[in-house]
Design goal:
six-stranded parallel beta sheet, disordered N terminus
Length: 259
């Protein structure tokens, strides 16, 4: 309860202040001061298009002081992050939230692996007074039929850690043919059918902000420039931005961050 109260107090104090991103390896820049400090532990699905920076930009546009740091490496699992020292980095940075992401983790053995390393990381996160969060990603386009398994396994990890579930993949789903998608809109997949397009990463960032702050992202501007020290600029067609924001809100409403 003490940890959760600390997190909620920081959310309540959040205001529009400069934000800063360092999307680095585990030996890179430090996490800057802000009302809410977030470390992302993930791989190229987080690194492509700088998802941590996009989250900082969206949060700033929504009126929150957020800094983000990405501990990312290509093809890394949580086990590999553990062995490379991510736990020690979390202890040193003492963030407020740690967002975990590995591959789609749709297979049974991947679920076992995800839950096992959740058990390793969660106590570290709690020991520094932070909240663990789990970013549901998406399967390869050619395996679009396994969205349910991706969701269920990430949700199980969040429940196991008593943490926050971030349903980014569910926000993608209406746009993905073969996954029940029926809504016209931008393709969330990049050219390789696995990594996100720019719009796919922005949509994921909307979901992260909506889930962490418990508020709608609808009505945010299509163009966002956070100012000095912030994440990257965001520039979208107004209709595309409105559609992605709605999808983000609907995903968080359908799959609440807690329970």
């Amino acid at each position: 309860m003490k940890t959760r109260n600390r997190f909620l107090r920081r959310l309540a104090r959040a205001s529009l202040l400069p934000t800063l991103l360092a999307c680095t390896s585990a030996t890179g820049a430090e996490l800057p001061a802000a009302d809410l400090r977030i470390v992302f532990v993930g791989n190229s699905l987080t690194a492509v298009n700088d998802l941590p920076g996009l989250v900082a930009t969206v949060a700033a546009a929504a009126g929150h002081s957020v800094s983000t740091l990405g501990l990312v490496a290509p093809n890394y699992s949580l086990e590999e992050h553990w062995k490379s020292g991510a736990a020690n980095r979390i202890r040193r940075e003492r963030p407020d939230v740690v967002v975990f992401q590995q591959g789609p983790s749709s297979l049974d053995e991947s679920r076992v692996h995800l839950l096992a390393w959740t058990d390793s990381f969660a106590p570290v996160v709690r020991d520094v007074g932070a909240e663990p969060a789990f970013l549901m990603v998406w399967p390869e386009l050619q395996r679009a039929g396994v969205f349910d398994a991706v969701r269920d396994n990430y949700r199980a990890a969040a429940e196991r850690a008593g943490g926050i579930f971030i349903p980014a993949g569910e926000a993608w789903r209406p746009l993905v043919h073969g996954a029940g998608g029926v809504e016209p809109g931008p393709d969330p997949y990049g050219p390789d059918g696995f990594h996100p397009s720019y719009e796919g990463s922005v949509l994921a960032a909307y979901v992260v902000v909506a889930a962490l702050f418990g508020e709608s992202v609808q009505g945010l501007p299509a163009d966002m420039t956070p100012g000095r020290g912030g994440g990257p600029d965001i520039h979208l067609d107004a209709n595309v931005a409105s559609r992605l924001q709605r999808l983000a809100d609907e995903a968080v409403e359908a799959f609440p961050p807690r329970g």
